[in-house]
Hints:
Number of domains: 2
Helix content: 40-55%
Distance between the termini: 52 Å
CATH superfamily of the largest domain: HUPs
Amino acid sequence: MDDLATALLAQCRFPPPPGPVDLAVSGGPDSTGLLLLALAAGLEVRVHHVDHHLRPESASDATFVVVTARDLGVPVTVHDVEVPPGPNLEERARTARRGALPPGTLTGHTMDDLAETVLLNLVRGAGIDGLSPMVGDPTKPLLALRRRDVAALVAHHGLVARHDATNDDVRFRRNRVRAEVLPLLDAVAERDVVPLLARTARVLAEERRLLDETVRDDRGLGEVDCRELAAWSSPRLSRWLRERLRDDRGHPPSVAEVERAAAVVRGEVRAAELSGGRRLARRHRTLRLE
């Protein structure tokens, strides 16, 4: 193992060897670096590449991943998914990708991705959950690494990772945060703010865990009488509802959704609509998610 890989690996949070582990590899620098570091960690690696067929060069991306994986002696599976044209294309593509990958697949998210997500969640009015994303997620072992350092590792190994041109399109909000907002914040703060945002996320994740322990109640929606719930303090009820109303991706409900759910608990309304086509209803003094 070379010195660069050793230094980066010391900051990663991979599962203990020998594994096995599944990796999502798009062919970009981050996921290609994930592959190199997983191998350096002594893990038995299985590579997965998802081809959405949304860009003309997607077939070349798949070829790069297949050739790279085989050169490294790693099995690779290409998952072909179809994402019809229409609104929310990015989100639907992410959903299709998650559906194609095995549960627990590792991804190449870095500290830069964490910082970008914190800012994106901040401007949409997220609470403590949204401001501490990814932290502690075992599927994201590279969160302590900077994107530039992972790219340097890939180049050091003589690999020319694929470049997705859509990542340069500032019509997409994340790209604009990356290209415009973060450099502006660096200039205002007169320092690199990515580590500061990542540190904030880690601190809030600790606070979140403490909060969850403080209000911990293992009962499900249908196991608690709404009269008991209505007697709780508003912060405790909101926290309890937020944990039980996470969607199938683990995302917490919005503040507005929690408020609508609390109205159901208090008997002000019989039911409330939630994201993902879900409906929270009150039946015989308990809650039911439909």
